[in-house]
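Why should sequence recovery work at all? Because a backbone constrains its sequence more than one might expect. Tight turns favour small or flexible residues, buried strands favour hydrophobic ones, and helices have their own preferences. The token representation captures these environments compactly. In the example below, the structure is given first.
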């Protein structure tokens, strides 16, 4: 694979061992890849939003392990996921493939063999043509390309303007939008309307989230407007 072609690829390394993250980062950066890292599942969810081309994922991590993370993201992430693990039992491999993994790399491994495997997966990769823009927030997933909202992998049905409001607020987490600004952005500056329209739409969004057992992500800033709660 030529150097300039390699440079396009973005790899996410998820492992709780600092030394291994550094070793892999140095190797792949030296070979022209863009590298992102995460030391646990929650960090990985944030990095996955940046649309890596391939994920190297340690299975044995505290709190959220690699299998759980893979299961959580696979419905929304199409890139190859390669497990890094000391386990070699067939039952472990079956669990990994069922979770959505594409390959197993056994620790300790030859870093050059790992590099060759990564190259091979990227060469064969066709799913990257179907990348989508996503945001993970605990068990809530927003798929902006499909204009869909999921909680625990169950889709929450939203009207067009309801999704427009969620998209506006969630892509600017922590930023406060007053009702007039939301109306201008979602309905268009020339449309007629008042703040009561925004209040009603936010009420309906909150009601739908609550119906699905999802806590409210939209915060009211009294006397000002609304904002999307930061993770």
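From this structural description, the recovered sequence reads:
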């Amino acid at each position: 694979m030529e150097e300039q072609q390699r440079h396009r690829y973005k790899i996410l390394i998820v492992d709780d061992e600092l030394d291994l993250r550094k070793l892999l980062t140095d190797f792949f950066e030296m070979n022209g890849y863009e590298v992102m890292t995460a030391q646990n599942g929650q960090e990985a969810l944030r990095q996955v939003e940046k649309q890596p081309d391939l994920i190297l994922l340690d299975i044995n991590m505290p709190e959220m392990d690699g299998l759980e993370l893979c299961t959580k993201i696979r419905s929304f992430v199409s890139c190859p996921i390669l497990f890094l693990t000391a386990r070699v039992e067939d039952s472990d491999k079956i669990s990994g493939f069922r979770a959505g993994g594409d390959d197993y790399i056994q620790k300790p491994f030859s870093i050059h063999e790992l590099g060759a495997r990564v190259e091979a997966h990227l060469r064969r990769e066709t799913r990257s043509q179907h990348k989508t823009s996503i945001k993970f927030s605990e068990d809530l997933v927003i798929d902006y390309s499909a204009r869909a909202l999921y909680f625990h992998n169950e889709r929450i049905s939203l009207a067009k303007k309801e999704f427009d409001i969620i998209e506006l607020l969630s892509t600017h987490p922590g930023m406060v939008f007053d009702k007039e600004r939301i109306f201008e952005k979602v309905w268009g500056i020339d449309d007629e309307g008042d703040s009561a329209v925004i209040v009603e739409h936010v009420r309906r969004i909150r009601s739908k989230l609550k119906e699905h057992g999802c806590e409210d992500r939209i915060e009211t800033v009294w006397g000002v407007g609304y904002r999307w709660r930061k993770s």
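A few observations help interpret the result. The longest helix spans residues 195-211.
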